Amino acid sequence: NKKMAETADWMSNLNEKFTKIPLSQLTFLLGSHDAMAYSLDTNSSVLEPKKIKALDKMFSTFLRLIVKKWGTAQVKEKNISEQLDAGLRYFDLRVAGKPEQSDLFFYHGLYTTMTVKVITLINFHVILFTLIAFNKIAFSHFKEIGYQVILSYDNRSVDDPVLWPQIEYWWADNSDPKERRPEGLFVAGLNLTFDGNDMLLYLTKSLKEKTMTAYPLLLDWVKEQRPGSDKESVNIIAGDFVGVNSFAQDIIQLNNADNGS
Question: Rounded to whole angstroms, what are the CA distances from 166 to 130, 132, 160?
């Protein structure tokens, strides 16, 4: 329908003046934390957290179900293509290989059932900019040269001419909000974080249940944010279980407000 189409192609509706300034100051980009964590495979071994990984061989059937509950960060009804249609433009992807296999998989606690090849099958929108986790480059530059995807690699020890360096990701208490925001693109993560102890303590709970309980407060915070280069401005906002509430619409509306629409 019309509303879905507008959400899917919201970047094409940006006021032209906003396409000529650095993306780090331009606007809010919507992000998906652990974007592929909707297809975790309980037949795979546990990769994390360490405490549960150490017990995997003895209690695999029981523990893998727990890890899946706490590792599933997106709903299966919102696969990667549907997340794009929902307006998401930043994707946090974790990739790992399996022993004695040539294919690469995504993971979050467990491996996913899908290989990395699934990304090559995505049909990107005509006017679209996507970050797969870039700095003083404007959106208009990418439109001119026809590029649609930026790959950022989160490994400070690797200097690759093809991959963009790490995009700072702020979440929980790993950063001091009183410090000046990073100069380039950075992510404000709304994702909640639980360790192995939490998973074993709350056996009947899940990441989704805890996240959805906290979301109203998080969305109130989102609505108060503004883009820009000043100390308190925000750039990319990422979250879990995107598409099940007003997360995407709220952020797109902030951009519309800046557009004067």
Answer: 15, 11, 11
User: 76-96 b/e with 16+ CB inside 10 Å = b?
Assistant: eebbbebbbbbbbbbbbbbee
Domains of the chain as residue ranges with CATH: 2-259 (3.20.20.190)
CB 196 within 8 A of CB 59: no
Structure token digits, residue 5: 């189409």
**Do 16 and 74 meet the contact criterion of CB atoms below 8 Å apart?**
no
Average pLDDT, the chain: 82
Query: Which own/partner pairs from 175-180 qualify as long-range (CB within 8 Å, at least 24 positions apart)?
Result: 180/231
> DSSP states of 140-194 as a string?
HHHHHHT--EEEB---TT---SSSB-PPEEEETTSS-TTSPPPSS-EEEE-----
pLDDT at 125 over 70: no
Token pair of 77, please? 């009804």
With a threshold of 0.70, does the pTM exceed it?
A: yes
Tokens at residue 9, please?
């192609």
| Strand intervals (E) in the chain | 29-32, 90-91, 95-97, 104-108, 110-115, 130-132, 149-151, 168-171, 186-189, 236-239
Strand 186-189, strand 236-239: pairing: parallel
